[in-house]
Amino acid sequence: MHAWLCTTPTGVDALAWTELPTPEPKAGEVLIEIKAASLNFPDLLIVQNQYQIKPPLPFVPGAEYAGVVRAVGEGVKHLQPGQNVACLSGTGGFGTHTIAQAALCMPLPPGFALEDAAAFIMTYATSHHALIDRGQLQPGETVLVLGAAGGVGTAAIQIAKARGARVIAAASSDDKCALCQALGADATINYTRENLRDAIKAATAGKGPDVVYDPVGGDFAEPALRSIAWRGRYLVVGFASGPIPALPLNLPLLKGASIVGVFWGEFAKREPQANATMMAELARWYGEGKVKPVLDRTLPMSALREAFALMGSRAVKGKLVLVNA
């Protein structure tokens, strides 16, 4: 097997395409032949030693991938060789093969494309957990999605629409806003040329959004929170822009609003049955055509550095996927 090996977490340039022995799965594990792997923002942070999880060196980055089970370890009953799966294991995805815990693998129903599956779990699980569980989104409510053209943003638009909500999508260019409209957004805001608070006020007739979905942080957090509706829920999903905002706590007081943390990974660990039920609903929605990952492009696995550069440029709409021939 071959994989992009990180021996020193000093950035993307330190990764090397390396030949490694193909491992054998131990008890509770499976060997997966990787067909496709997607890029997520933590993949960049982890090779820069800036992520909260720091795997022991050396490691193969790549949190999320899909492929074919080639061997199973002792005690694995729900998976078998030849079966297509998607997996979110935190590391191991940027290569030709990997070992994963069987419990972390999602069996794929017939017709679930592997490229889509590689870009599915993290963004759709995060957005479903955020909007439906933590945000308690109800049909007819209004959701403001920041960073709406990114991976989690495009998933959030689709899930909110499947829930029967009205969606205002905020993104950084007209092209990205057009993508959001194509996904079903009812209104869009280009926040590079529109005042965010004024645009939210206009799009909600002064009421404000019931739910704010924020994977961006930075300078847009406070104006979005100031614009929230009475009893609104502000979902703290991530900080893709870099800075972690310091929000004045009088704002949720004045609006009777809630600031709600979203940590899907911990939810999945602590509440595995609820997570499994959620993933089954998402797989069903995929089969019904209600949700489908937005793939900016697919690149060969050898183009990992190019893919990281594209992601860092903020030019990506949806997700980047690397494929093995």
TrEMBL record:
Annotated TM spans: none
Matches recorded under PANTHER family: QUINONE OXIDOREDUCTASE-LIKE PROTEIN 2 (PTHR43677:SF4), SHORT-CHAIN DEHYDROGENASE/REDUCTASE (PTHR43677)
Pfam families listed in its UniProt record: ADH_N (PF08240), ADH_zinc_N (PF00107)
Species of the source: Paenacidovorax caeni
Annotated Enoyl reductase (ER) domain residues: 11-322
CDD domains: QOR1
Protein name: NADPH2:quinone reductase
One term of GO molecular function: zinc ion binding
